[in-house]
Design brief:
globular; 15% strand; multifunctional enzyme; binds the ligand Nc1nc2c(c(=O)[nH]1)N[C@@H](CN(C=O)c1ccc(C(=O)N[C@@H](CCC(=O)O)C(=O)O)cc1)CN2; methionine biosynthesis; NAD(P)-bd_dom_sf; Rossmann fold; 284 residues; methylenetetrahydrofolate dehydrogenase (NADP+) activity; single chain; binds magnesium ion; 10 helices
């Protein structure tokens, strides 16, 4: 079998266009503030892309750039200001942070109602207990991609490779909420390949270049590759060996152009949701 390619760029562009139209109809500009600390070059690219996508969709977006030497207390003070600012609907602190700052302490300080990354323990708890809240952008984007691919999670065997708070755990919760039968596997799991081979939906989010080989993929499975790994050659690859896996999968996301663009589109979706909820508006 040669897999269908799930075009994340196109799905993200479509979502961004629909969000822009909703913003136009609502008649106000949702406020987004992205905080970048230091000069990690990849973060620079992501933050610029977020800002540009937000502005193109009619959001009131700005990036706050802080020096690499920023202390945790200084960053917490910036977060407190944004929490108190009525013009701000969404706050996102770009990760990774410099080593003198505890990311957990900063993420916990963000007002959960403005936590458009969905990383605050309150939002994580709401998701884990099946209640409405702000959902992390990358797993939310994966759910959009499954819909676009025509892959229904209900009753399907889903395997999530990776157990991070940012992707693996919320991904498992979302699939479970969509009635999939979910298994989470990780570096300590025995027989990883055999576990993955059982999946009708396989989500790889482990951060190891091309770890998932062709014979880990069941015939006809939908494979979603969350990994974005830069090889020493400069080439960007996912957690899945794309050519090998494509020979078995029914549908597969590429890297680049798969999950990555959805992360940014879903950030806009979350910011719009936060703006609507903060204003007590209900859309019809
Ligand atoms: N606060 C957060 N920090 C980080 C997150 C996050 O969701 N919230 N995720 C990643 C980085 N990230 C967004 O911030 C992100 C990474 C990659 C892409 C993307 O579109 N990638 C492209 C390829 C880009 C390239 O050429 O390098 C693709 O996959 O097509 C978007 C967002 C860590 N930090
Ligand atoms: Mg991503």
């Amino acid at each position: 079998m040669s897999a269908r390619i799930i075009d994340g760029k196109a799905v993200a562009a479509d979502l961004r266009a629909r969000l822009a139209e909703r913003v136009r109809v609502l008649g106000f500009a949702p406020g987004l503030r992205v905080v970048r600390v230091g000069d990690d070059p990849a973060s620079g690219v992501y933050v610029r892309n977020k800002d540009r996508a937000a502005q193109q969709a009619g959001f009131n977006s700005a990036t706050l750039q802080l020096p690499e030497t920023t202390s945790e207390a200084e960053l917490l003070a910036v977060v407190a200001e944004l929490n108190a600012d009525p013009e701000v609907d969404g706050i996102l602190v770009q990760l990774p942070l410099p080593q003198q700052i505890r990311a957990d302490a900063v993420l916990r300080a963000i007002d959960p109602a403005k936590d458009v990354d969905g990383f605050h323990p309150v939002n994580a708890g709401l998701l884990a207990t099946g209640q409405p809240g702000l959902v992390p952008c990358t797993p939310k984007g994966v759910m959009h991609l499954l819909r676009a691919a025509g892959t229904a999670p209900r009753g399907a065997r889903a395997v999530v490779l990776g157990r991070s708070n940012i992707v693996g755990k919320p991904m498992a919760a979302l699939l479970l909420a969509a009635d999939a039968t979910v298994t989470v596997v990780h570096s300590r799991t025995q027989n990883l390949a055999a576990e993955c081979r059982r999946a009708e939906i396989l989500v790889a989010a482990v951060g190891r270049p091309e770890m998932v080989r062709g014979d880990w993929v069941a015939e006809g499975a939908t494979v979603i590759d969350v990994g974005i790994n830069r090889l020493p050659t400069g080439k960007l690859v996912g957690d899945v060996a794309f050519a090998e896996a494509s020979a078995h999968a029914g549908a597969i996301t590429p890297v680049p152009g798969g999950v990555g663009p959805m992360t940014i589109a879903c950030l806009l979706e979350n910011t719009l949701e936060a703006a609507i909820a903060r204003r007590g508006l209900a859309e019809n």
